[in-house]
Amino acid sequence: MNKEELLKEYETTFGEKGKDVFFSPGRINVIGEHTDYNGGHVFPAAISLGVYGVYGPREDKKVCLFSGNVDGDIVEFDIDETTVEKDDRFWANYFKGMITYLREKYDNIDHGFNLYIKANLPSGSGLSSSAAIEMLMGIILKDEFNLDVDRIALAKMGQRTENEFVGLNSGIMDQFACIMGKKDSAIFLDCNTLDYEYKPLALGDYEIIIMATNKPHTLADSAYNDRVRECHDAVKKLQAKLDIKTLGELDNDTFDEYAYLINNETEIKRARHAVSENQRTLRATKAMQDGDLEKLGRLIDASHVSLHYDYEVTGQELDTLAEASWAQPGVLGARMIGGGFGGSAIAIVKKDQAEAFKKNVGKIYRDKVGYDASFYDAEIVDGTKRI
């Protein structure tokens, strides 16, 4: 999006000139799905699709938010108001939670502001628009009020906003990827310790294509929290014999040996995915470092299969995209990404076959699902920043 156009839209909305423009990226995750809240590893990257924000200070204590993507009025609330917004104002909670938790620590956030936001992330895409919004708000407040807070602390506040303010029991991967992203690199992150390392996304003649199902989904209204609970219950049963806090501490052999302690079909499947996906992430990251892209692709495919059969978060739309991708020439691997129940998938496709891939998979999807998927080429970019 054009900076000048955003400033003009701010001025039209609020009748004054905006002060600064910020961008916060969405994210993809190469591999490591539903492992973050299970203490495992993930391998995400920030992408060029995201959320823009134009900021202007106010002299009173009012916060005024306007979204260029939502048909609605300006959302207004006092800066010290902490009530959760409902219905068509629900999107404002991602800003409000960050303001609330930052003001608990920093008393110099003492005046309100106007904020015009506009996203080019596809709606309901599972590319982490909520985390992008939270990190946008965090960096704006850090910069504009000169807060002594680092980026990892802001990622933790974003997770707290999801968990406590919004009510989704998600892990930290999305916020971490959005705010800590690095151009042309993915982040190899241990969600248990928050140790991380940047790894070049060296895909050679291949590129990552994002495939959006265009099926609306809201994770807070889905079975996401059920999956968190089922894994937590499995851990409690394993703790009868194992000194562990998370499923990410187990390898496949140890889990297989002690799975009898769980003795519940659903919980065994959920825990088996969390353990095996973490191991796949470790192996896939090494495969990419070693230049073994075919092995990386097989592990990405295996991730989708596990998410389908053991975690049961795919559904017809995501399965259609993945399975259609597997059948195309020039495809290394494909899988759903994000929470599931709709959203998006990724495919690693040979660059010179990308257009044919989109056409073929698009036709299969429309014939089977009844409406169009959308396809995006992913540029890997830096994390949330002033532009």
Number of strands: 13
Give the ordered list of helices and strands.
HEEEEEHEHHHEEEHHHHHEEHEE
* Proportion of beta-strand residues: 15-25%
Largest sheet: 6 strands, mixed
Low-confidence stretches: none
Radius of gyration: 21 Å
State the helicity in percent bands: 40-55%
**Separation, N- and C-terminal Cα atoms:** 11 Å
Q: Give the mean pLDDT.
A: 95
Helix segment count? 11
Query: What coarse outline follows from CA principal-axis ratios?
Result: globular
Give structural notes.
The chain is an alpha+beta fold. The chain has eleven helices and 13 strands. A hairpin with a 7-residue loop joins strand 4 (62-67) and strand 5 (75-78). The longest helix is centred in the last third of the chain and has 25 residues, at 265-289. The chain starts with a helix and ends with a strand. The model has no long low-confidence stretch (mean pLDDT 95).
